[in-house]
Amino acid sequence: MYRFLLTAFLAWLVLVPALAAPPTREAPQGMVAYPLETLRAARRPGGPGRDGIPSIDRPRFVSADQARLDDDDIVIGLYHRGEARAYPQRILVWHEIVNDEVGGEALSITYCPLTATALGFRRGETELGVSGKLVNSNLVMYDRATGSEWPQILGAAIDGPLAGQGLEEVRVVWTTWGRWRARYPESEVLSERTGYVRNYRRDPYGSYAPLGGYYLPQSRRLFPVLHRDGRLPPKTLIYGVRTASGALAVDRRVLRDAGLIETRLGAERIVVIHDPGLDSAWAFRNPRGTSLDADTLGFGPEGVSGPGIEALEPLNGFEAMWFAWVAFYPATEFYAEVP
Amino acid sequence: MSRLWRRLTSSPGAMVGLGAMALAYALAFLWLTGDLAGGGSGLETGFPAWERLFERRGFLRFEPVGWIVVGGWVWTFSPLNTLLALGLGILLGLNLLAAWWVWRSPRACGLGEASTSLLASIPALLLGGACCAPLVLIWLGLPLAGAVAGVMPILLPLAVVAMLVGLWRLARRLDRPP
Questions:
Q1: From CA A235, how far away is CA A229, in angstroms rounded?
Q2: Which of A317, A319, B59, B155 could form a disulfide with A241 if both were Cys (CB 3.0 to 4.6 A apart)?
């Protein structure tokens, strides 16, 4: 009896965190360019300890009309299962993670101010929190079920029971409030009633409108990185896409001019389409080499549509500061030429 | 220490000076640590988070419980952070006052010792201000932040110890017969 109880207790200890763990993929969505030991050794304390930057775990929302936002304020937009939500950058800069539920699905919306990266992840039964550590200046998240540590840009665990596995990503959009509201007029907006008292009128790092402080392209990074590349000023925002076999950074000015970029990443054909309404992009695999014409494409709540789009496979892409992208993906392709 | 205390309590000017120094330091400390910042307009107060009074957001750093907006300034108010800032300010003020008295004392060796103690309080001031303020380094754009972030938590206790030792040495000097 005693042995049975002990076995049951040990099984409970092992199974409960495992059951509550976030949904994962055996292989992360993007390549991991370094051995996990290298990434573990590259972790640095960012200043505040674990949860010293508190995630928002019970978010409240207001309507678009009630939101105290200017048109040029940066928001991280999410359109998921028919619901649109905007997460103001100047709230996320203080919290970095919102553990939300959208369309009946538990998601974490994450933002790292030091690398200007915003990514959404499925979180399952658990929540993601801010570990207080950085890799390549990038937020290292932890999941509250297993304690595994996940650098945000990688979306892969580098330490803990889930090391080597990847989180399931959900597309979020880096844009301005004016652009988001024009596309999604019914969007809800994350409220400043976060449960914490912060000065949401002030960004401690700098400003995006007008561009200033830490966010200036030529300003210096603060924390060490695993790889440096001087082809662009360090804080220049690029649009990045990664697959299991490689990574691609696209110069956003080139993307705006071209409208549509067709390139290759290893053996795969990749298409990146500029969304002029949101000034962001949509990335796809193009396995059959379908030909596309930028002039025939349209943009709506679901993203890009038009002839040939249904033959493509969506890929998650996101804006990032160049120094951080190239630190995680030192062999990244860099698309900077107008075709 | 007894002479320092007597001089302090018998001189209203010294008390006012101490209060002014403590207040100035506390304001600087709160600004450096981010509790006091710009971004406000008008006059507004709200205290919606008293339940977070004792909640820590770092070593010797506590969650604000409310905000006070006065013109362009916003004070995210934590009673414990404020008490800590005032305590540090009083300690620094006592150091400066004691150093001043030692310097003004009519003995040959007074100048050197007071200067040394005064100099010792300067790193204490800097450490005190820098303790929880990686953001200041970010504003300044110093790549130092990466190296300093890890030792931030020990800087505040270091500052307190440095100022206590400085005060003890100065008080002993003042108590010594001429």
A1: 12
A2: A317
